[in-house]
Amino acid sequence: METKIENATTVEIKPEIDHIPQEDFERFAKRSLLDRRHNHLGAFQSHLIRTWGKEKAEATLEEHDVWSARDYRRDQKYGAAFIQRDISGQIRNVKLVAYKSDGHRVKDGEDCLVYDWRQRAYVNRPEGNKASLAGKRIMYAHTLTARQCFFNEDKIAKYPNKAIGMVEGEKSVVICSMAAPQYVWIAPGGQYGCRWYDPEVYEVFRGRKVTLFPDLDAFEDWKTRAEMMKLDGIDVDIFSLEAAGCVTEEDCAKGLDIADYFTRLQQQQYPEGFEQEEEVVEAASVKEADAPAITASLSKLVPAPTPAPKAEPVAERVAPTDAPPQSAQSLEELYEIDISQVVHEPRKLHSLKNPDGWASESEDEEKDKPSGWYIP
């Protein structure tokens, strides 16, 4: 690391690096992640085990390098960490995501404990996106210039004879790999994630058969982009979930994806679960994918019945009473502490530390900084 003085101001010049070395990732993992021996502590991982069985789920999690992320907590479970490895196996970035116990992501407005590495404590932050990239944090002493790649991209080289299936999210890659292992499943990490429609990014598809499996609300967008890829010589087609005959109006409103239907089919078969441009477009028309095995599988799925509307509750008149109104749950009951101690010792509540006691991301932080709030 170099420094230079410009107009009496010291400017720190960090060396550039285009990937995350394995040793730097391992250092980060020791502080911020839980390895696969603790899959039961991750919300997404626990859901997979309950739905698909321990042996199958854990083998798939290991194959796809999925960890539990301490940055997020919800329902007493941690978030998930997905490692982006490019086709040569180098780490480009690490994506951290908060999940609920039902396997769905925590959305904006929903409660979630986020670990504040400055305060060294969890803080409840309902607002905002519950997903982040940890690359800059890992390579804090460098300027990380790595461009994001597909999640699971390294498996394209590992399985050269398999067709490629592209879904939107990392979670779907893991689920689809269990339900339809005849494909190498990859994900850009969002509808437009990693700018997968750029030639520099989709170059890894060249010479391979590729099928796109878009979410219900992204079919037309992905079809248009696939047509441009077709013009560039990529052998690509697109799969329509609606053509499988298992989609309801409610599903369309929610924008479900193929992994949601694979999960629904699995839960139906095992209800008890387990333990634990116009001219250009016309010239490059992309046909719908012919995937008979997947279509036949999804066609067995019985559409979920539409729930009956709930009746409006009838207000009842309550006779007046001289008794004092009942208060909400007390502070003592809510936090299981003696409120008198908080009154006499105002910093008592601030001293509730993270019970797991792992180290901060920065070892040289001042020890006398306030720890912040912690809600278990």
> In percent, how helical is the residue content?
25-40%
Distinct helical segment count: 14
Number of strands: 15
Class by alpha and beta content: alpha/beta
Low-confidence sequence ranges: 277-283, 323-328, 342-376
State the end-to-end CA separation: 40 Å
Oligomeric nature of the chains: single chain
Give Rg in angstroms.
25 Å
Tell me the major beta sheet: 7 strands, antiparallel
The proportion of residues in beta strands is 15-25%
Molecular shape: globular
Report the mean per-residue pLDDT as an integer: 83
Provide the succession of SSEs: EEEHEHHEEEEEEHEHEHEHEHEHHHHHH
Task: Provide structural commentary.
With 376 residues, the chain is of the alpha/beta class. Helix content is 29%, strand content 18%. α6 links the parallel β12 (163-166) and β13 (183-186). α2 (43-52) crosses α3 and α6 crosses α10 (258-269). It is globular. The two termini are 40 Å apart.
Keyword list:
disordered C terminus, 376 residues
Overview in brief:
The chain has 376 residues and is of the alpha/beta class. It is 29% helix and 18% strand. Helix 2 crosses helix 3 (54-63) and helix 6 crosses helix 10.
Summarize the topology.
Elements (H helix, E strand, L loop, with lengths): L1 E5 L2 E5 L2 E2 L4 H11 E2 L8 H10 L1 H10 L2 E9 L2 E9 L5 E7 L15 E4 L4 E4 L6 E3 L1 H4 L4 E2 L9 H5 L4 E4 L3 H10 L3 E4 L12 H4 L6 E4 L6 H13 L3 E4 L10 H6 L3 H12 L8 H6 L8 H8 L31 H5 L3 H6 L32
Helix pairs in contact: 2-3, 6-10
